[in-house]
Description:
The complex is a heterodimer. Helices cover 48% and strands 0% of the residues of chain A. Chain A is mainly α. In chain A, helix 1 packs across helix 3 (69-80). The longest helix of chain A is centred in the first third of the chain and has 15 residues, at 2-16. Chain B is α/β, with parallel strands linked by helices. In chain B, the strands form three sheets. Chain B has a seven-stranded mixed beta sheet with strand order 4-10-9-8-7-5-6, sandwiched between helices. In chain B, strands 1-2-3-12 form a four-stranded mixed beta sheet. Chain B has a three-stranded antiparallel beta sheet with strand order 11-14-13. In chain B, helix 8 links the parallel strand 7 (181-186) and strand 8 (211-215). In chain B, helix 4 packs parallel to helix 12, helix 7 (165-174) packs parallel to helix 8 (198-208) and helix 13 runs parallel beside helix 15. At the A-B interface, helix 2 of A face strand 6 of B. The complex binds pyridoxal-5'-phosphate.
Amino acid sequence: MENLKEVILQYVINEYLEDDSVEVTFETPLLTKGIVDSFSMVSLKRFLESKYEIQIPDDRATPEAFDSVSKIAELVDEFID
Amino acid sequence: MAYSKNVREAYQGTLATIKDAGLFKQERFIHSVQDAEIEVEFPAGAAPKRVINMCANNYLGLSSHPDVIKAAHEGLDSRGYGLSSVRFICGTQDIHRELEEKVSEFLGTEDTILFPSCMDANAGVFEAILTAEDVMISDRLVHASIIDGMRLAPAIHDTFKHSNMLHLEQKLQLHSDKRIKVVITDGVFSMDGDTAKLDEMVALCEKYDAMLFVDESHSSGFIGKTGRGTHEYCGVLGKIDIITTTFGKALGGASGGCVSGRKELVEMCRQKARPYLFSNTIAPVVVSGVLSVLDTLSKSTERRDKLEANTAFWRKGLTEAGFVLKDGNTPIVPVMLFNAKLAQDFSRDLFDEGIYAIGFFFPVVPNGQARIRTQISAAHDIHHLEKALTAFRKVGEKHGILGKTKQEIIEKYGA
Ligand SMILES: Cc1ncc(COP(=O)(O)O)c(C=O)c1O
């Protein structure tokens, strides 16, 4: 799980941050803080699905479920098992 | 009547919030034609003041050019004022088709379809050509009208960092299983004045079998050796699958826009694009005006050459005066001030000096990147630009920012 969180955090940093001035942790609210917009969630979902060879149903990929690295990791973990 | 006191007060509250946030937009009345010098009533009620205009999209100075006005008059006399119809009922005259053909010739495309505006072209095109099996991959700084158009389309949407080709390539790989992939960008970015790397984008699109969409609203008529646009500038004429552009900026400045590109895509728009099907045809006066503009531009590059020389003069002058500019070589020249209040004060002081240029700040540009966006025109003569430079220097001196770096300006004023 820790490893999963690290992978997701690294992806978020590379994908969404334009500079190093913003700090993101496992618990930072991604959507409500405007770091990820709902449009860009698509790439995150696709990245996770192809990396972990899973399918996350659209009705589970809600803005709430994607609002922090920890929450995303929980969701992904559920489908890996 | 159901506009109750509560409803009215709710709206008044919302408007007050916009005002309190300093985001309330106030229009200024212009009492003259659009040109290098205009007469502006500001503040409302004041006697109109003659100022040099540094913020119009009138890049080629054609908005009130005698030849264009004459052509518009002729169109008015021979084809009337309006058609009171959408295109496919009884709103297509010979000159509408003639303009579509002329635009294709000018842009080097297979076919063209006119829209009431480029906003409408961008709003309609994606929904008309894409399905849920497709993907749109857009630069993160594309124009608002493209964002609205993508929202209306059934395809999934992803973005890449501004002009970052490595990131774009990753996205093309990520979505390689999609039926149709469209990469979407502006040719020249309207807030920053930088240019898309269309040569590299064409190469990536060929490698990953994707279509390329370019909004050329701030390039058509003057970017590239003969003014065809960013695709000419980047050496990829004929390789852009979809171009949208406007007639409301360099190409006469009245109104109207189009989708130009692969003929099947244009035909799909004619069959399916809702802003085309359900909105009135472009007025004959406008069509006649744009026809004469394209005719003039095809014969001579004089106007875009003058614009290029003016732009070089202006960028050099501002740089030597010690301003921080955004890199680029287009006639959109942003003078960076970083702080929103400084941008507003600067604009007001310029107006007192007889120069009209507007401050832009969040949310139009990212937080901490406030600026005065100047736009150069072929209507400007060097004496206009010299006067404007003198005013910029004087106001820059007053605010103590000449020769200062980004960090120093932010330290002084905050971001
Ligand atoms: C890049 C871009 N695309 C589209 C438009 C919209 O053009 P029009 O005024 O024809 O609707 C604009 C104008 O603001 C623009 O800057």
